[in-house]
């Protein structure tokens, strides 16, 4: 707006210049940004995996050279976080691949003229668990995993039992 003297009376019909307000939009929730498809996202940003790998190697080298305990601890935490993110990404990728294979099977059955059959969440979980056990058996870590699970369940059962003091 124009700067006017306070001593003059403001005219009734003054000239007002309208300023267009900037519209802020969040690409996460805006339709203009398109639909999020994890497969396309992973293909587009696949170059980041190599960069992350290089960074991880660099951190490992720094960790070996580092003498300061605080700095060493920070680097170790960073390295752990990076490995956990990598594992989580692999797990998500496996899950996506499994879902895609199920969808392909359903499409093929539909083409043959059969009714589509969709798995419940509980059945999907059972399949995941069976796959996990098979993977553990292949790697030879099944026994240790089952022992840990037994110990955890035993501790849970002990909590529910009445204590010796009450008897």
From TrEMBL:
Q: Does the keyword Disulfide bond apply?
A: no
Q: Which UniProt keywords apply?
A: Nucleus, Ribonucleoprotein, Ribosome biogenesis, rRNA processing
List compositional bias (Basic and acidic residues) regions by residue number. Answer: 94-111
Gene Ontology cellular component terms for the protein in this record: 90S preribosome; nucleolus
Q: What is its main location?
A: nucleus
Protein location: Nucleus, Nucleolus
Instruction: Give the matching Pfam families.
Output: RRP36
| The keyword Transport appears for this protein | no
Q: Which family does it belong to?
A: Belongs to the RRP36 family.
Q: What PANTHER family has UniProt attached to this entry?
A: RIBOSOMAL RNA PROCESSING PROTEIN 36 HOMOLOG
What role does it play? Component of the 90S pre-ribosome involved in the maturation of rRNAs. Required for early cleavages of the pre-RNAs in the 40S ribosomal subunit maturation pathway.
What is the protein name given in its UniProt record?
rRNA biogenesis protein RRP36
What organism is this sequence from? Calonectris borealis
Gene name? Rrp36
């Amino acid at each position: 707006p124009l700067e006017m003297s306070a001593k003059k009376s403001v005219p009734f019909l003054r000239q007002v210049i309208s300023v267009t307000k900037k519209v802020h939009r969040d690409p996460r929730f805006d339709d203009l940004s398109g639909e999020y498809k994890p497969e396309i996202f992973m293909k587009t940003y696949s170059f980041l995996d190599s960069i992350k790998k290089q960074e991880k190697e660099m951190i490992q080298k720094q960790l070996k050279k580092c003498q300061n305990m605080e700095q060493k601890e920070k680097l170790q935490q960073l390295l752990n976080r990076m490995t956990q993110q990598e594992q989580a990404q692999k797990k998500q990728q496996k899950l996506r691949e499994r879902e895609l294979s199920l969808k392909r099977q359903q499409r093929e059955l539909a083409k043959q003229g059969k009714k589509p059959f969709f798995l419940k969440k509980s059945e999907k979980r059972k399949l995941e668990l069976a796959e996990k056990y098979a993977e553990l058996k292949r790697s030879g870590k099944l026994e240790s995993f089952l022992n840990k699970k037994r110990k955890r369940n035993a501790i849970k059962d002990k909590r529910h039992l009445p204590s010796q003091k009450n008897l």
